[in-house]
Design brief:
alpha+beta, six-stranded antiparallel β-sheet, about 45% helix, 2 domains, 10 helices
């Protein structure tokens, strides 16, 4: 599965991951629209969903991979708590968490601001209240209902603390999925496939990743001029920044072989410039 395939899957499932801040930002936009249009994830963790979480192909600027406060917070969660959250998600029959009501306009605006504050280290004072079933949800109290995957919101304007508790728990769920067995297996599958394609490139005397990046950036500069200087190389979860794809399976641009899939974007811009560079001769096969 290549970046293009994964982006299509992401459009459907909107999975966040605390190690992938750009994904989280996209999810936040979905979350603000309210019930049944919120943090969505496949319960069975199918191949596409698992690869979105684990192959590391989400659009994340290189600098964002430096360990941050959120990542540190997630890593400090007790292992048993992480396992319980993953089990809860897998047991739910729904494919997306919902909200009992839509956010008010002011809640939407404050949530956007608090999302950034959270990533800068502003965490809630306590964790969100959780109940097993809807019948056990205390009235007027923010809580998460485990069996139906719903955030029950109070019928009033939520406080900053409550909004932060929601953001925090979404990060916890993302992290639990990232650490799960299916996700680990998908990472291993992806790494094995990349190693296989890397062997093909080396055996054929193809160009290096560094050369492919140079060619892609030169192409972007030819198209965008000075604007290209603001674009950063997007990187995978392992810091590689480049994914190998098998042309015979992925495109009709060439009859076979392997290509480097390289993408650039600005940190605050969702628009991605994607280039496929032939690994054998460095020619530009495709621009998206």
């Amino acid at each position: 599965m290549n970046r293009r395939d994964i982006r299509k899957a992401m459009d459907q499932i909107h999975i966040s991951a605390e190690m992938q801040e750009e994904m989280i930002a996209n999810i936040q936009e979905q979350m603000l629209h309210g019930k049944k249009k919120t943090w969505s994830r496949k319960k069975a963790m199918g191949t596409a969903a698992a690869l979105v979480l684990t192959a590391g192909l989400a659009a994340v600027p290189v600098r964002a991979l430096v360990k941050d406060l959120v990542e540190t917070r997630m890593e400090q969660l007790p292992k048993e708590d992480v396992e319980k959250i993953e089990h809860m998600i897998q047991e739910q029959s729904v494919e997306a968490d919902s909200f009992s009501r839509e956010y008010s306009d002011t809640e939407k605006e404050r949530s956007k601001e608090l999302w950034q504050s959270y990533e800068n280290g502003m965490f809630p004072e306590k964790e969100i209240v959780q109940v097993d079933q809807a019948g056990g949800a205390p009235e007027g109290i923010l809580c998460y209902i485990r069996d139906i995957g719903e955030f029950q919101l109070p019928d009033r304007e939520m406080t900053d603390e409550e909004l932060l508790e929601i953001i925090d728990f979404q990060h916890m769920m993302s992290y639990a999925l990232w650490q799960g067995r299916t996700a680990r297996e998908a990472r291993e599958e992806y790494e094995a496939e990349q190693a296989r394609l890397e062997g093909i490139v080396q055996a054929a005397g193809g160009i290096s990743r560094e050369e492919a990046i140079r060619i892609a950036r030169a192409q972007m500069e030819a198209e965008l001029g000075a604007e290209a200087k603001r674009k950063e190389l997007l990187t995978d979860g392992y810091g590689g920044g480049v994914s190998l794809v098998e042309l015979s399976n992925q495109t009709d641009s060439a009859g076979g072989g392997v290509a480097y899939d390289i993408s650039f974007a600005e940190p605050e811009d969702d628009f991605i410039y994607e280039y496929w560079i032939d690994a054998s001769d460095g020619s530009v096969l495709d621009v998206r």
